[in-house]
Amino acid sequence: MNFLPRMALLLSRWIDGAAWAILSIGGAVRPTRKFQVVEQDDLAFVVKALRRRSAQPVADAPLRFVEGQFVEEAGARTGSRLAGGQVEIVLARRRFVFRPLELPQQAAGFLDAIIGSQIDRLTPWSPAQAAFGWEPPKETSSGRIAVVVAATARSAVMPFVTALETFKPNSIVVSTAPDGGGDERRTIVFSHEANRDLPMCRLRRLLVVAPAAAGLAAVAAFAAWLQVSANLEDSRLQISRQMAERRAALSSGRNGVVEEATAKLAQKKREMAATVIVLESLSQALPDDTYLTELHVADGKLEITGVTREAASLIGIIEQTEQFKNATFFAPTTRAPLEVGEQFHIDAQIVPTFPAFP
Fold first, then answer.
1. What does residue 77 show for φ and ψ, rounded to 5 degrees?
2. pLDDT tens digits, residue range 163-173?
3. 260 or 64, higher pLDDT
């Protein structure tokens, strides 16, 4: 009784592990686009795309934070570029309180726990109510380390995070603007994985559906193979039956069909001119100053294209032969651009070489 639930649990864990592995490989192979949303003095927010060595503005018009939403100018499409990327919103320093903290050097590896336990003493908020971070510690002359803690109310940060979530980024980070401007020493006070579970759920669903779909496809392919095999067997039996009937008809002396077919082939041979004979007759009829660039023989008709000194005389020359009749120009005659002579296009009816039997 416990076997099926245990197998289901193992299968679910395997699917979770495979999904995380695929997502990790995809994240390593495909670089994530990174953006900064930087607050300005006029309460506007400039969106920048982060490159390896620089940050370039995404659009000329900044975003405006109005009634809990980021509003952009019509047609700017700034927010749509944030979808699927890592977004860092850099808030102005006036929104934070900064408190210096001096600690022993041995506390450098435990700053997270130490600062978290003293937030309610350093700021007006409890650890659950505050969004806080700290700058990299610096060594003082007394052999201790000095840390500057930046903090603000979590309720003051969440409206910006919620507004950014409407653009569907993968992650959102809130930081303070660096002291004196520039791109260095930003202090991160809050981070949020906006769509962390969505790709995982989609991939788990795909890993569950894909084997089932493959099984159904295999069953459908096997059924189709059985149907095709049955149809092929029926066709083979029908062809074998027809061959046996034909052999019986031939052995009984009813060979009229063969004679009729032979007579039709002979008649067709007499009515159609052999291409070799057509080429031979044409080569003997054309003057020495004439050469061909194209030749087509089809359905008892000859079409030739080439260059000659006098194109008008070719009509009479071709019709004087016993192999051709009704020779005409099917395109205008022009002067050859790179050669001496005229470029012609002539077609004619081919006269069968062998006369039909009476």
1. 55, 35
2. 888 888 888 99
3. 64
